[in-house]
Design a protein that fits this description.
- The protein is built from eleven helices and nine strands.
- It is of the alpha+beta class.
- The protein has a domain of 130 residues: Rossmann fold, CATH 3.40.50.
- Strand 3 and strand 4 form a beta hairpin.
- This is tRNA glutamyl-Q synthetase.
- Pfam families: tRNA-synt_1c.
Length: 282
């Protein structure tokens, strides 16, 4: 909810509209009670959004990523035709055994695209200088080593997160993205993919990376923990102001925040929403 409060605040200040987009491509991990809780929490906290589903049923019927599967596959085929992909059959356990980072082992193996247990990876050997549009200007960035050869189609044939996210943002005309600083590298991967695919509109998106809520000095507050806390407060009869006070307290803000508008203004006044990071070139 921290990120959504920031999004709503920035959207109102910029005169933008908010799209509620729920990633549900991985149906095996989608739990109806968690989807329902997203809507319950937003209504409980009275945080508005202008576009997107209003109920879980509407999400499934009109807004699910499954309805855009053809767009994902079209993008994958275009990348494949442009020799920008390669097939890979490396296992997760094998990657963990070798240190976790993928080194392009299958880049020149010429595996069958539709072979058993094969995913598709992006060929990232081409160095690209990326321009990230942030609140404090355009930042020159490059793809980090940890994101090399990232997966764009999973072994089950469905689009992977990075590709689906880029296609969705382009499809809906998103030009402002607010996300946690832990997704910085993910943003760079998406910018690399968009530039390689010639998706200029996505490359012009402005990204705001905010600090994470921490429940301990070295432990961030997970989405599930945060959602559980809001559900618990609701069931205990607490008011929305209690949730906003908890968020403010985690960030060291002492002023009262009875609603999301007040909390959003306090966040912008007291805490750096935008992180300027210039990568050191080696």
């Amino acid at each position: 909810m921290f990120s959504f409060v920031l999004t709503a605040t920035l959207a109102r200040r910029c005169g933008a509209t908010i799209l509620l987009r729920i990633d549900d491509m991985d149906q095996q991990r989608v739990r109806p009670e968690y989807v329902q809780d997203i809507f319950d929490t937003l209504h409980f906290l009275e945080i508005p959004w202008e576009e997107g589903p209003r109920t879980p049923e509407e999400l499934k019927r009109e807004w699910s990523q499954l309805h855009r599967e053809a767009l994902y596959q079209q993008a994958l085929e275009a990348l494949k035709a442009g020799d920008k992909l390669f097939a890979c059959d490396c296992s997760r356990s094998g990657l963990q055994h070798s240190g976790g980072a993928y080194d392009g082992h299958c880049l020149h193996r010429q595996l069958l695209w539709d072979g058993p247990d094969v995913c598709w990876r992006l060929n990232t050997t081409t160095p690209l200088m990326l321009d990230m549009r942030a609140a404090n200007g355009v930042l020159p960035v490059t793809l980090p080593a940890e994101q090399r050869y990232f997966v764009v189609r999973k072994k089950d044939g469905h689009a992977a997160y990075q590709l689906a996210s880029v296609i969705d943002d382009d499809y809906f005309g998103i030009d402002l993205v607010v996300r946690g600083e832990d997704l910085w590298d993910s943003t760079l991967a998406q910018l690399y993919l968009a530039q390689l695919a010639g998706m200029d509109r996505f490359c012009d998106t402005t990204f705001y990376h905010h600090t994470l809520l921490m429940e301990a000095p070295e432990k961030k507050l997970s989405k599930s923990d945060g959602a559980t806390a809001v559900r618990y407060l609701r069931k205990e009869g607490k008011a929305k102001a209690d949730v906003f006070a908890a968020i403010a307290g985690m960030l060291g803000i002492r002023e009262q925040a009875p609603d999301w508008e007040t909390l959003g203004a306090l966040l912008l006044d007291h805490y750096p929403v935008f992180r300027q990071r210039v990568q050191t070139q080696h």
